[in-house]
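INFO batch 0412 | record 1 of 1 | parsing
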Amino acid sequence: MDAFFISVWILAAVINTGTSLTCTMCMSLNGANCVSTENETCKSTVTTCETVMLEFKIKENVTTALVRSCTRFPFDCKVPYRSFSGETFSFMFQVKCCDSDNCNTDVLSFPPRNSTKNGVQCPVCPVAVDATQCHSNGRNMECTGEETQCLFFAGKMLHPAGKFLQLAFRGCVHSDTCKEKIPPYPESRLEEGSTFQCSPGTT
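INFO prediction complete | emitting tokens
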């Protein structure tokens, strides 16, 4: 009887291994393409691969990243493009998800930033680190393009290094970013209890 159960266990392990999703895995920084023959086998609960592009601009310094992997945060696939502009920095995020082995080889590119003012104004303040509040003190910024909502964020966001950073900031945000309620980690990069509040701006 023991041999029977061992055989069943081995068979189940083989079947599970055979049906696990495999995704291309690589990362590059600052505009370089990310090409690799290295793959990773996803956890049994992960059903999609992803290609993610990020861009952070702080004053005149721009950092970009391209990552291919198993989908780390399922919420990413629901809102494929997001952007935010603050007083001294901006952020863009784009993702493409797919559900077959090593399918995440797409070359992504950000749409050109639309710098045309859209008539919306939002409260703004510099990014505050290790803070739970960020006061505009009556200062507003003029929003551009499709960033037609105002955003206030206060909470902990997962850094690529694996640590949560406590941040607070205000500014203009792309309207698509506000369409879905963001679930807490591990579905997204935001720790439970974080405030992600969208609101209409003034015109």
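INFO post-check: The chain has one helix and 13 strands.
INFO record closed
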